[in-house]
Specification:
Elements (H helix, E strand, L loop, with lengths): L8 E11 L13 E12 L2 E7 L9 E12 L1 E7 L13 H14 L4 H16 L3 E7 L4 H14 L2 E4 L2 E2 L12 H15 L5 E7 L7 H13 L4 E6 L3 H10 L6 H7 L7 E5 L5 H10 L2 E4 L1 H6 L7 H7 L2 E4 L11 H14 L6 H7 L2 H6 L17 E4 L5 H9 L3 H11 L5 E6 L2 E5 L8 E2 L2
Parallel strand pairs: 1-4, 5-6, 6-7, 7-9, 8-9, 9-10, 10-11, 11-12, 12-13
Antiparallel strand pairs: 1-2, 2-3, 4-14, 4-17, 14-15, 15-16
This protein binds guanine (GUN) and zinc ion.
């Protein structure tokens, strides 16, 4: 956080990078990449108002912050992450269903306590910002206390955040289960309290098909019909054991995804994590409904869930964003997430470009969430949610950076070698919400 009052008119000088469109999965193609090296990004009253070459600095009534030689990006959008799982990140030795029982459910149980929930929610939101993520689609726990805590923490920082009470009325420990009537009443209360307040939006959140009865899934579908602009988030087709379990629980469904489709849960604001074990018919349903898959490569590698077929999603015209899925994922860093996505695709014989990875973590995610008018690019009129990065930290990365021959090579080396330690500062709606503690360079040049 900044020490004193901040100017409302700020200009940041750096290398500006964002996208005007989808760069495509493989073969680096810079046509939709907008690279403006050594430019001023001008922010007034929380919004981006102008972009100018370094040679045309803004006038004396602007607070000028000179970060020449650094990289300025739109804030990352993490489309699937659990705010109540920081305590179980990096837990040893299990696959998905065991991991939920052994580590995750016990940690989520503690969020019934409002004081605990708020401390953890504040820490979570600050951790997002300290990794350069300024917007997120988040699972709290089944408890209304955890939802209030998370929205309160996000609201205090002015963040764009989508979340909702987890629905779970079976196959979970008793103190983590709700029932259809209570879940509906709690969801209605929380929607009235938070949906559309500031930059917050509510997501109807059935955890996954195994932990909701058909009656609860139907209730979730009814909530989506009843209220405008609600999001939906859940998990789908993550591990093979999970897929086999769903087939037993819903024998009449054509597929795992079909369970959600049947209950009216798929629409253009639906975010489904994982989607590893889908088929082409499922992908067509995703494309037709406008729902997106939140690809979570760190989690998929860590839990051994499988290798996501990104190319098949592109072929079907279905949307893909990137997500950390902490605590199944082992880092909140979207840079590490992009690097893991590259590794997953490499194992499938596909070479994910750094442009596509960065697009999926910024403008692509914003578009899939129908929020690209607000976030995801460095366009005048957008809210000034931005992150300032070093191109390289440490001698090895610096040497590699210096040798890069073109923009893709440079960005790719950054994506593979950088992490949150390269983050200098994070702005949310033009206000500093994270600043690297040791940072003494990039001195402000105030008139
Ligand atoms: N499927 C159902 N719940 C979870 C969860 O908390 N994390 C992951 N990765 N998958 C899930
Ligand atoms: Zn998850």
């Amino acid at each position: 956080m900044s020490a004193g009052p901040e100017a409302t008119r700020r200009a940041l000088r750096a290398d500006l990078l964002d996208f005007t469109g989808d760069p495509g999965l493989g073969a680096p193609d810079a046509k939709t990449v907008r690279y403006r090296p050594d430019h001023w990004l001008m922010i007034d009253a929380g919004r981006i108002v102008d972009v100018r070459p370094a040679a045309q600095p803004p006038g004396g009534d602007w607070a000028r912050e000179d970060h020449r030689g650094r990289l300025l990006l739109p804030g990352f959008v993490d489309t699937h992450v659990h705010s109540v799982q920081l305590d179980v990140i990096a837990s040893y030795g299990t696959e998905l269903l065991d991991w939920l029982e052994r580590y995750t459910f016990p940690a989520e149980r503690r969020h019934v306590d409002a004081a605990h929930a708020l401390v953890q929610a504040e820490a979570f939101v600050d951790a997002l910002l300290a990794h350069g993520s300024t917007a997120a689609v988040v699972f709290p726990s089944v408890h209304a206390t955890s939802v209030d805590a998370l929205f309160t923490a996000a609201q205090r920082r002015g963040m764009r955040l989508v979340a909702g009470k987890v629905l779970m009325d079976r196959h979970a420990p008793e103190d983590l289960r709700d029932d259809v009537a209570q879940a509906e009443a709690d969801s209605e209360t929380l929607i009235a309290r938070w949906h559309g307040v500031g930059r917050l939006a509510y997501a109807v959140t059935p955890r996954f098909a195994a932990t909701s009865t058909p009656q609860q899934l139907a209730m979730a579908g009814a909530l989506l019909k009843r209220h405008d602009g609600l999001y939906m988030q859940t998990h789908v087709a993550e591990s093979r054991a999970e897929v086999a379990w769903i087939a037993k629980l819903f024998p009449e469904a054509r597929s795992y995804l079909d369970v959600y489709h049947h209950h009216g849960l798929l629409n253009e604001r639906a975010v489904l994590a994982h989607g590893i074990w889908l088929d082409d018919a499922d992908r067509r349903v995703l494309a037709d409904s406008g729902a997106q898959i939140a690809h979570s490569p760190s989690s998929n590698l860590f839990l051994g869930s499988g290798l996501f077929d990104w190319q098949a999603m592109v072929d079907a015209g279905a949307e893909v964003s990137l997500a950390s899925d902490v605590g199944g994922g082992t880092s909140l860093s979207m840079i590490r997430t992009m690097a893991d996505a590259y590794r997953v695709q490499a194992l499938r014989g596909v070479r994910l470009s750094a442009f596509k990875a960065l697009h999926a973590a910024t403008r692509g995610a914003a578009q899939a969430l129908l929020l690209d008018h607000e976030i995801g690019s460095l366009e005048p009129g957008r809210v000034a949610d931005v992150a300032l990065w070093d191109w390289a930290v440490g001698p090895v990365a610096m040497q590699r950076d210096a040798l890069a021959r073109d923009l893709h090579e440079r960005l790719f080396a950054w994506m593979m070698l950088a992490d949150e330690r390269a983050l200098v500062t994070t702005l949310v709606a033009g206000r500093t919400q994270y600043k690297r503690p040791s940072d003494d360079s990039g001195a402000s040049e105030t008139p």
